[in-house]
Amino acid sequence: MAVGPWRGLLVLFGLAGAAIHLAVVRPRQLTWGATADEVSRPLPGDDLVACPTFLATRAISVAAPPEEIWPWLVQVGVTRAGWYSYDLLDNLGRPSARRVVPELQNLAPGDVVPMSPDGRQGLRVHAMDPPRTMVWGTPGDTTWVWQLEPRPDGTTRVLTRIRSRIRLFPMSIAFSVLLEVADFWMIRKMLLNLRDRAEGRDDEDGIRSASMR
After folding, report:
1. If one looks up domain 33-212 in CATH, what number appears?
2. Domain spans of the chain?
3. Cα separation of 166 and 13, whole Å?
4. Dihedral, CA atoms, 38, 40, 46, 52, nearest 10 degrees?
5. Which residues have CB under 8 Å from 24's CB, separation 6+?
6. What is the pLDDT of residues 128-147, one digit of tens each?
């Protein structure tokens, strides 16, 4: 007989937790590292996905010029240099590259940034403006933009923005669920490791990696 009240309390706590997550935690996750100005101002590619159901802008400062960060971004992808994130989950368990790979620097508009084990499925490169801007994705569905903005002190602000609009078919719904569940953790890890690689630091122990010596 005591199950009813406890069940009600559990539901109440669950609803309260969900409300706190939506009101406090999720907005911070969607804007991790970014200033209010960076979140609100337009970036290249914004016009490709109108009225997104998922919108996230993250940023990080890197002690390197855009020219030294750009090669690390150009080579990302499964079957390429990896994603600099959780390799067990997003790179088939293979370690992401710790050096700039010359043979992976020929990315161009129309190419696919691979996300599947066979290297064929992923986000298509929509536009590139080296070493400042790169836009991936499918107009009307999803875009992922990278913006490298140099600062007077020699550092660079790296901004990344994902805009996605859910469609009522299984793949779109599955992708939207993945964005909600894993996007923040993967992007945060990727930005931190991108910073460490571009600055010549190892992402595990903070020392300069042998490949950068």
Report:
1. 3.30.530.20
2. 33-212
3. 29
4. 120
5. none
6. 999 999 999 999 999 999 99
**From the DSSP assignment, how many helices (H) and strands (E) are in the chain?**
6, 6
If residue 17 lies in a helix (H) or strand (E), which one and from where to where?
Answer: helix 3-20
Spell out the SS3 assignment of 23-52: HHHHHHHHCCCCCHHHHHCCCCCHHHCCCC
Q: Check whether the bond before 117 is cis (ω within 30° of 0).
A: no
pLDDT value for 64: 98
Per residue in 62-73, pLDDT (tens digit) is 999 999 999 999
**Quick one: which H or E segment has residue 72?**
helix 66-74
Sheet containing strand 112-114, edge to edge, reads 54-62, 156-164, 142-150, 133-138, 122-129, 112-114
